[in-house]
Amino acid sequence: MQPMIHMIINSTSCKYFLAFYIRKIVLYTLLGVIWISPQYIRILHATIEEKEIGLAIIYVGDNPASDVYVKNKLKYADQVGINAKLFKLGDLTTEEELIKLINYLNNDESIHGIILQSPIPSNLDFDFISNKITSTKDVDGFTTNSIYANYTNTDGFIPCTVRGIIKLLKY
């Protein structure tokens, strides 16, 4: 497995490397698998140890299930050496404030991936807001560009939930 990881690093940009492995981490979290093989964590950590990979998790509102998901995403990102930053916003956050944060993160070179934790409060339009995330930083694959890329089998990654369902169906 180690040589394959080095091959990926040498053949793709850091952004794609980040998205690939963050999606695996998120997949485990979404499927409720709390445990990841220590060997897998060591390989990931050793592989990205010297890179400054930044992940932004935007969490708006308060949802008990999201609390668990965000906690696990932060935990696994830390275990593999990814600098994950949580941006926790209150229920009264406006669409303009959220888009301003997303635009800031889109332009921040230290951030390579962005997750907008769902659900978000009902006063906010998730589809409209998530489409403000640039497709090269869209870890979940929710933007229109990411969905189109996956539908047409062009530049992009299969979102973690879809990949998890496919793996379960093949099993």
Distance between the termini: 21 Å
- DSSP helical segment count: 8
* Count of strand segments: 3
Largest sheet: 3 strands, parallel
Helix content: 40-55%
- Give the neighbour order of strands across the main sheet: 2-1-3
Task: Report the C-alpha radius of gyration, rounded.
Answer: 16 Å
Kindly state the mean pLDDT as a whole number? 75
Judged by helices, strands and strand pairing, the structural class is mainly alpha
Q: How much of the polypeptide forms β-strand, as a percent range? A: 5-15%
Oligomeric state of shown chains: single chain
Helix-strand blueprint:
Elements: H1 2-11, H2 14-30, H3 38-48, E1 54-60, H4 64-79, E2 83-89, H5 95-107, E3 113-116, H6 126-130, H7 144-151, H8 160-170
Parallel strand pairs: 1-2, 1-3
Task: Provide structural commentary.
- The chain is mostly helical and 171 residues long.
- It has 8 helices and 3 strands; from the N terminus they run αααβαβαβααα.
- It has helices at residues 2-11, 14-30, 38-48, 64-79, 95-107, 126-130, 144-151, 160-170; strands at 54-60, 83-89, 113-116.
- A 3-stranded parallel sheet has the order 2-1-3, with helices on both faces.
- β1 (54-60), α4 and β2 (83-89) form a beta-alpha-beta unit.
- α2 (14-30) crosses α4 (64-79) and α2 packs across α8 (160-170).
- The longest helix is centred in the N-terminal third of the chain and has 17 residues, at 14-30.
- Residues 1-17 and 27-35 have low confidence and may be disordered.
